[in-house]
Amino acid sequence: MAGAENKSNAKLIFPDGKETILPVVVGTEDEHGVDIRSLRQETGYITLDTGYMNTGATQSAITYLDGEKGILRYRGYEIEELAEKSDFVEVSYLLINGKLPTTKERGVFGQALTRHSLIHEDMHQFFAGYPPTSHPMAVLSSMVTSMSAYYPDSLDRNSAVDLHITRILSKVRTIAAFAYKKSIGQPLMYPKNSLKYAANFLHMMFAVPSEDYEVSPILEKALNQLLILHADHEQNCSTSTVRMVGSSGANLYASIAAGILALWGPLHGGANQAVIEMLEEIKTAGGDYKKFIDDVKNKRDNRRLMGFGHRVYKNFDPRAKILKKMCDEVLAQIGVRDPLLDVAKGMEEIALKDDYFISKKLYPNVDFYSGIIYRALGIPTNMFTVMFALGRLPGWIAHWKEMVDDPQTKIGRPRQIYTGAPVRKFVPIDQR
Ligand code: ACO
Questions:
Q1: pTM tops 0.90
Q2: Structural domain boundaries, residue 51
């Protein structure tokens, strides 16, 4: 990875008049950062940045996004172009290896994913151990952690990383589908080598042994596009978690499992489920979404318009734009009419004209319309965040690999400003 250039410096002046010079680093797209790596050593000061709103944790060559302009690129390729012209396996290769594959490379990569799709038969018993009410994210995260028990060579940092990458990319798809089958009491459907990545997932989700199942090319294309749109998003909460856990030397499976858990939260990947729950709640209560928006604006019960707002996008989320269009197209192609789509569109229309949302720069994010497409594909609401995890896998893997390969990587260990009690003497319990 070529590092950012150091072209100029910044001067920091402290309350006692002391000064320090800090290098300014500039990235490929002219984004500027002050390199504070020597700050504490030279001055004793640290920086305080709750929520890492201004902190670059790494230099990365994987994904570029500009929140003001609504730009998202993987390895330099525009998200719009990838969603239209590529498929998820090719995008995974691109993210992980840094370049688009040749026909031969694409074939080898795809074949490896096909060959590694089965999970160890003993792992099937795990599914039986979970109560039927288990959230599939709980099952997925623990199954991914368990993979490190089945592939103990992953604990050795010099083991075949590419093989682990192939395994995890392929088997998470199988685990996700098996978790769903188990939750509805249907027999597990083994993967079929004749099917491509997305089609194979749909087969494992929706086929049953008693009848033939033909994968719809419309659903296959929609799934590929959804997975591509979720494939990476630079240093978000779950990806930073993968990097943080991986920086301790934890193996790939453990690092990815940690990312899955970080993704689960409703402020992150869990928002796609929360959006549908919100839309359903509004519809059940009579469909008065204007009242719901008023409640949000008045912060009643700390309500938020789920699927709106983003830490980085302050203009529009390019993924949401693609998804809104896709939502109309997919629903029309498969002949589904979803009343929740009308509620969502009505809410978006009001919010985009409302001063509360405009002044806070709140726009639909990737989760606002994705749930409606997942519903149309037949995927149940509690599986939405699992779908997000499946899509985000190549991004997490690419970041884990970049972090491991970077000689500048150090264990992630932020500092703090202590605000607790000053030193005090221990008081024996009978004197308190
Ligand atoms: N609805 C209503 N108000 C909101 C929303 C929302 N969705 N999002 C932010 N705000 C308001 C906050 O109340 C706050 O108002 P205040 O200044 O009056 O206190 C202001 O906007 C800033 O909000 P923060 O939470 O400080 O913004 P932050 O950048 O930390 O949060 C986040 C971003 C978490 C995505 C937020 O917008 C949110 O909670 N959205 C809803 C959940 C969601 O859709 N998450 C998915 C994000 S995309 C992803 O992770 C895949």
A1: yes
A2: 5-59
